[in-house]
Inverse folding.
C-alpha cells in the first residue's frame, strides 16, 4: 500500500441496518457483534445516531474497545446545534455534544460532521459566529470539523473563503439533491457518496469505483482531482498539501443495502 493510500479511510454510515444482515453480516451473527465485524471489513464508520440523540461516555468507550487499534469513527454532531434559525446561539448545544464523552474514543475520533438543513441558506455573519464556537480541542485531542452544507447559496466564493479562514473542511457529495462541489476548505477531504444502486452488485459500477479510487489517491497525495465540480476554478495542477492529506470516504444513502459492498470494493482498489 502506498503512503497516500494509507491515509484514505473508507466506510459506511452506522452498523445496525437490518438489510445488511442478509448481504453483509454472516448468517446468525449476534447483533451485539455487528460493530466488531463491520470495523474489521471497513477502515472507518460514520456514526449517525449522535445527530439524533445524546450518548453517554460509556457508549463511546464501548465503541472504542470493540474496534481495531487503527480504526476511525466520524461523528455526526447534534442536530440541536445546526437546525436553528440563528447559528450564533448554538454555544450550549455544541458544548453539551463535545462534552458528552467524545474523548473516550481517543485516537479513534475522526472528523465531526456538522450537517445543516437543505433550507439553511448561507449567511456569512451568522456562519462566522458559528465557526467561532467550534472548539479546537477536547482534552488532549485535536478536533477536526467538517460542514455538510445543503443549500445552493453555499456555492459561493465568500463561503469558501470563510471556511478556509477557519480551517474547516466541507463535505463533498455526489448527490443530485444537494450542492456538489469539491473546492477544498480544510486540510483533509470528506466525501459522502450517495448514489449506490440496488441493481449493481457492488453498489457503484466498477468503472465508477475505479474513478473514485483515482480521486482518493489524488486527494491523499496532496492534489485535486480535475474532473470534480467546483465553485471556483482555482485548483492548482500540482499537489498543495505537503506530506499529503487524510481522506474520508463514506458510502451513505442511495441503495443503502449496497453500501458495504461499495466500500469493500473501493478498499480493494486502494490496496
Amino acid at each position: 500500500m502506498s503512503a497516500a493510500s494509507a491515509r484514505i479511510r473508507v466506510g459506511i454510515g452506522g452498523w445496525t441496518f437490518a438489510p445488511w444482515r442478509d448481504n453483509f453480516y454472516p448468517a446468525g451473527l449476534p447483533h451485539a457483534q455487528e460493530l466488531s465485524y463491520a470495523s474489521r471489513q471497513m477502515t472507518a464508520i460514520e456514526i449517525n445516531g449522535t445527530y439524533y440523540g445524546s450518548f453517554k461516555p460509556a457508549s463511546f468507550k464501548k465503541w472504542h474497545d470493540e474496534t481495531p487499534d487503527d480504526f476511525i469513527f466520524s461523528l455526526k454532531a447534534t442536530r440541536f446545534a445546526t437546525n436553528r434559525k440563528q447559528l450564533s446561539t448554538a454555544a450550549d448545544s455544541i458544548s453539551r455534544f463535545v462534552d458528552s464523552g467524545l474523548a473516550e474514543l481517543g485516537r479513534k475520533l475522526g472528523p465531526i460532521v456538522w450537517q445543516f438543513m437543505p433550507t439553511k441558506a448561507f449567511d456569512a455573519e451568522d456562519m462566522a459566529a458559528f465557526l467561532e464556537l467550534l472548539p479546537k480541542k477536547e482534552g488532549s485531542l485535536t478536533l477536526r470539523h467538517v460542514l455538510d452544507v445543503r443549500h445552493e447559496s453555499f456555492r459561493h466564493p465568500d463561503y469558501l473563503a470563510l471556511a478556509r479562514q477557519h480551517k474547516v473542511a466541507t463535505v463533498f457529495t455526489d448527490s443530485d439533491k444537494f450542492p456538489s462541489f469539491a473546492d477544498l476548505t480544510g486540510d483533509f477531504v470528506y466525501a459522502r457518496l450517495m448514489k449506490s444502486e440496488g441493481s449493481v452488485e457492488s453498489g457503484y459500477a466498477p468503472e465508477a469505483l475505479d474513478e473514485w479510487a483515482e480521486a482518493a489517491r489524488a486527494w491523499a497525495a496532496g492534489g485535486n482531482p480535475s474532473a470534480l465540480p467546483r465553485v471556483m476554478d482555482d485548483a492548482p495542477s500540482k499537489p498543495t498539501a505537503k506530506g499529503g492529506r487524510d481522506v474520508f470516504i463514506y458510502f451513505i444513502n442511495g441503495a443503502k443495502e449496497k453500501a458495504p459492498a461499495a466500500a469493500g470494493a473501493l478498499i480493494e482498489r486502494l490496496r
User: Anything to note?
Assistant: The chain has eleven helices and eleven strands. The mean pLDDT is 94.
